[in-house]
């Protein structure tokens, strides 16, 4: 009986020792966007007191699947790969994750393409299960300013003249070759896993063809880094995209769970 009580206490202790970090930008009409995509359009429809009895509010929104913090389903660039509703849940929940910090390189070159060397700095990646790699360029600080974030002033709908960092084709090839059995997703804190100057979206083509999904406009990676015991430590990610039949992508809640932290609530 005593033994049982001790075990119970231990499990409660453990679950209260995690810190949650929300890696999701809040969606609004001001949300930054990739040109060519339908912008997020939020309409407050009803907010009223019904006969003075009770309050009732309800809204509506229109959006591209590829706005805000979102997941690119493999089908987005590969007609033989999964649509968003087909991605197995075990590739979305409780996934071991790692942040690769490329801020220094991106500060010197806003069109920086992440190299194989940048990845090798973090090897060996000793994960036996599924995992996600998140690239931290530092671009999230520009998120609220469309021209800074996209790297161009023009507001037109063509994708020309975009400037922001992304993965190199060689890095994408390397990840697939080395890790495609276990790597389920690649994330970044910019508008696209391909750099802004990309014309053919090769990184999308390479990863998505191998059923590795993309996470774009990821927020708050700096907060996670600060909370980790060391910058190369692993942590858990929960990735929860809206389940749209035949979806090529979807807005997505992403939460990092850092174990062995006293939880004082959610950190933004
Ligand atoms: C935004 O949505 C509202 C209502 O759903 C619609 O009337 C309006 O035309 C939309 N605006 C744009 C710019 O698409
Ligand atoms: C968002 O933008 C749409 C279209 O321009 C507009 O109809 C709507 O009222 C805006 N919503 C808010 C909350 O500002
Ligand atoms: C994908 O596209 C290729 C080329 O058009 C076609 O041959 C193939 O049947 C398509 N596969 C599926 C599953 O739609
Ligand atoms: C965005 O940044 C540019 C360049 O720093 C600045 O000129 C512009 O005023 C900013 N726009 C907003 C909406 O803050
Ligand atoms: C959580 O609260 C404790 C006790 O109030 C405090 O010592 C600790 O610094 C806080 N941690 C965070 C991450 O805010
Ligand atoms: Zn996308």
Automatic annotation (TrEMBL):
Q: Which organism is it from?
A: Didymodactylos carnosus
Q: Which family does it belong to?
A: Belongs to the Cyclase 1 superfamily.
Please indicate which superkingdom the organism of origin belongs to: Eukaryota
- Membrane-traversing stretches: none
* Single GO biological process annotation from the record: L-tryptophan catabolic process to kynurenine
Q: Is Transferase a UniProt keyword of this protein?
A: no
Name under which the protein is recorded: Cyclase
Keyword annotations: Signal
Q: Which GO terms describe its molecular function?
A: arylformamidase activity
């Amino acid at each position: 009986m005593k033994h049982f009580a001790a075990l119970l206490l231990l499990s409660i202790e453990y679950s209260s020792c995690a810190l949650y970090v929300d890696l999701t930008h809040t969606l609004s009409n001001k949300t930054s966007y990739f040109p060519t995509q339908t912008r997020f359009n939020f309409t407050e429809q009803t907010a009223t007191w019904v006969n003075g009895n009770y309050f009732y509010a309800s809204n509506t929104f229109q959006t591209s699947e590829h706005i805000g913090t979102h997941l690119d389903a493999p089908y987005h660039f590969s007609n033989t790969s999964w649509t968003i509703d087909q991605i197995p849940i075990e590739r979305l929940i409780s996934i071991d994750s790692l942040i690769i910090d490329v801020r220094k390189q991106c500060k010197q070159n806003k069109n920086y393409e992440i190299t194989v060397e940048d990845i090798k700095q973090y090897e060996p990646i000793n994960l036996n299960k599924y995992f996600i790699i998140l690239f931290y360029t530092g671009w999230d600080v520009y998120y609220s300013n469309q021209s800074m974030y996209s790297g161009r002033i023009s507001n037109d709908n063509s994708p020309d003249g975009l400037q922001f960092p992304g993965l190199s084709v060689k890095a994408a090839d390397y990840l697939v070759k080395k890790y495609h059995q276990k790597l389920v997703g690649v994330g970044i804190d910019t508008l696209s896993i391909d750099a802004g100057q990309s014309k053919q979206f090769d990184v999308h083509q390479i990863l998505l063809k191998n059923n590795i999904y993309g996470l774009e406009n990821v927020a708050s990676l700096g907060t996670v880094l600060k909370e980790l015991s060391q910058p190369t430590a692993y942590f858990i990610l929960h990735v929860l995209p809206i389940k749209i039949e035949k979806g090529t992508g979807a807005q997505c809640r992403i939460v990092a769970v850092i174990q062995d932290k006293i939880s004082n609530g959610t950190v933004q």
